[in-house]
Design goal:
This protein has two domains: 2-238, Ribonuclease Z/Hydroxyacylglutathione hydrolase-like (Metallo-beta-lactamase, Chain A, 4-Layer Sandwich); 246-386, 3-Layer(aba) Sandwich (Rossmann fold). Helices cover 34% and strands 25% of the residues. The protein has helices spanning 55-65, 80-83, 86-92, 102-112, 179-194, 198-208, 228-238, 256-270, 285-292, 311-323, 342-348, 369-389; strands spanning 2-5, 8-10, 13-15, 20-21, 25-26, 31-33, 36-39, 44-47, 72-74, 97-100, 119-121, 127-129, 134-139, 149-153, 158-162, 215-218, 243-250, 274-279, 295-305, 308-309, 329-336, 356-357, 361-364. Bound molecules: MU-OXO-diiron (FEO).
Length: 393
């Protein structure tokens, strides 16, 4: 039995074997669907449920804790990895009411066909007494859906943050026991689903400053008993600061683009710039997403296929455009055999990025001496930009 504080339990499920989320996001370390049970002196509340594939685990945990009655099911978020077992819980505990905000209520009706009569809706800041424990609801929109809220348990100073501050990490530990491992997983999670809402996340960070938080209990990954660790990480990620880095996702068919990439990477390193190179034919896109959180520049490397960009390069561009990192500069390097519109196609896939496009380097066939000089100049231009930003010497 996992207990955060007296009468506050984690009753969710660890999914060690899941390897893909949303049929897109790799989960190298599995994940968890955290649900929390709070037993007050008068009422009992379940905060979120689990992915429907793990409903049996949730029920077993409730039995182990000895729950004969649930008065409230707090639904922080409509997405099914947390709400999916609500219908089963309502069947087992028919007197329970689903407590959520009006927007999430609408989603739960749409997604899970929960009956209108089952709901109690609450406003931002409203409190709900369980007797000796008080729940305070805090709207945290766009982490990563518009309806999401968290709950602050006032007496125990625990903030149940739902996806906010979460990490896809299956672990047997209730609390963070290795900050380096959790940092990487949390950064991956932020990059994949929160980064595109950076402005909203900043506002939510400001908002929770008013709470005296001693513990953060997210809906994925371990609980933070030292909350400043993850709050400071988020502050850094959402800040406008970019790093002296170039992210270089590339693909090469017959080696021309690869030779350009190899030369260009060497040129950047000689200039003191950190490079993160990804061969798109074998890349964990989560790693690529993590690297986009801080880097000042993205350079996509692509050959020309049937007069356009290689589809894997297009995928990387679409991914970057979707994730909306704070990247300031972008460019393209690559090759062609006889012609094409690869550059126009790739730049056209980046409308969401507020980037300055630095003149691409595109070569016909195999790169020659002049082409390597052009790549050196591209590296010089990037360094000059970084000096202006004071992120390079
Ligand atoms: Fe973990 Fe947005 O659900």
């Amino acid at each position: 039995m996992k207990q955060l504080k007296p009468n506050v339990y984690e009753v969710g499920a660890v999914d060690w074997d899941r390897r893909l989320f949303d049929e897109m996001i790799p989960l190298p370390d599995g994940t968890s669907y955290n649900a929390y049970l709070i037993k007050g002196s008068e009422k009992t509340a379940l905060l979120d449920t689990v992915d429907p594939t793990k409903t049996d685990v949730l029920i077993e945990n409730l039995v182990e804790v000895g729950v004969d009655r649930i008065d409230y099911v707090i639904a922080h978020h409509g997405e099914q990895d947390h709400s999916g077992a609500i219908p089963d819980i309502l069947m087992l505990y028919p007197d329970a009411k689903v407590v959520t905000n009006p927007k999430c209520k609408g989603m739960l009706i749409d997604l899970l066909d929960v009956d209108d009569d089952n709901f109690i809706t609450i406003d931002d800041g409203q409190t709900l007494s369980l007797g000796d424990k008080t729940l305070q609801f805090v709207y945290v929109p766009w982490v990563h859906w518009p309806e999401t809220l968290g709950t602050f348990l006032q007496e125990d100073k625990i903030f149940f943050s739902c996806d906010f501050f979460g990490s896809h990490l299956a672990t047997s530990s209730l609390f963070v026991d290795d900050q380096a491992v959790v940092y990487e997983a949390a950064k991956r999670y932020y990059a994949e689903i929160m980064m595109s809402f950076r402005a909203a996340i900043k506002k939510n960070l400001e908002k929770i400053k008013a709470l005296e938080i001693e513990m953060i209990a997210p809906s994925h990954g371990p609980v933070y008993d030292k909350p400043e660790f993850i709050i400071n990480a988020y502050k850094d990620w959402v800040s406008d600061r970019v790093r002296n880095e170039v992210v270089l996702p590339y693909v090469s068919m017959h080696g021309s683009t690869r030779k350009m990439v190899e030369h260009f990477v060497g040129a950047l390193i000689k200039r003191g710039i950190t490079v993160r190179q990804f061969n798109l034919s074998a890349t964990d896109v989560g790693k690529l997403a993590i690297s986009l959180v801080d880097a000042a520049t993205i350079v996509v490397g692509s050959p020309t296929v049937l007069s356009g960009a290689h589809p894997l390069a297009a995928y990387a561009a679409i991914l970057a455009n979707t994730l909306r990192p704070k990247t300031k500069f972008a460019s393209i390097i690559g090759s062609y055999g006889w012609g094409g519109r690869m550059v126009e196609q790739l730049t056209g896939l980046l409308p969401n990025l507020k980037v300055e496009i630095i003149e691409p380097v595109i070569v016909k066939g195999c790169p020659k001496d002049d082409d390597f000089v052009a790549l050196d100049k591209l590296a010089d231009q990037i360094l000059a930009k970084y000096k202006e930003l004071k992120i390079a010497d």
